[in-house]
Write a structure and sequence with these properties.
This protein is mainly α. It is built from 7 helices and no strands. The protein is elongated, with a radius of gyration of 23 Å. Bound molecules: zinc ion. Zinc ion binds next to helix 7.
């Protein structure tokens, strides 16, 4: 059984962004492949010193879809610039429908959360206004 892992996949694994099935294949391969271990260690060091950002590796190796976690961070605008650009080009230029669907879904969830929060805030304000006007009437 031979599995070939690209640097992009190894990097995704290090960033905990590789899908579960592929991760367990990789872990099995790591158990008896010294060369693969060396590559993983080298990559880990490169990432640690910032020689490879995940975004750069992604673009270089044309890695597949970002995870839902990454898409969520993208929506919240908390991704580093390079990853943001990657996702933008992945969805807008390459037109990945899977990610677009995921993104729509996540967006809906976030809008829903926001709506719930706004409803709570509004209720809070309404009750404070009620409280204040009551006091005004008293004096
Ligand atoms: Zn995609």
């Amino acid at each position: 059984m031979l599995h070939i892992f690209s640097n992009a996949e190894l990097a995704a694994y290090l960033e905990e962004d590789l899908d579960a099935a592929r991760s367990s294949q990789l872990e099995q391969a790591l158990a008896n492949d010294v060369e693969l271990n060396n590559r993983l260690n080298t990559l880990r060091q490169q990432i640690a010193v910032g020689e490879h950002s995940l975004g750069a590796i992604w673009r270089q190796h044309n890695l597949g879809c970002p995870s839902r976690k990454t898409l969520g961070a993208y929506l919240l605008g908390v991704l580093p610039g390079e990853q943001k650009l990657f996702i933008q080009s992945h969805i807008e230029t390459r037109g990945c429908l899977t990610c677009q669907a995921n993104l729509d879904d996540l967006e809906e969830q976030q809008t829903q959360n926001q709506a719930n929060m706004t409803a709570r805030t509004t209720r809070y304000y309404q009750s404070s206004i009620g409280y204040l006007s009551q006091h005004r009437n008293d004096s």
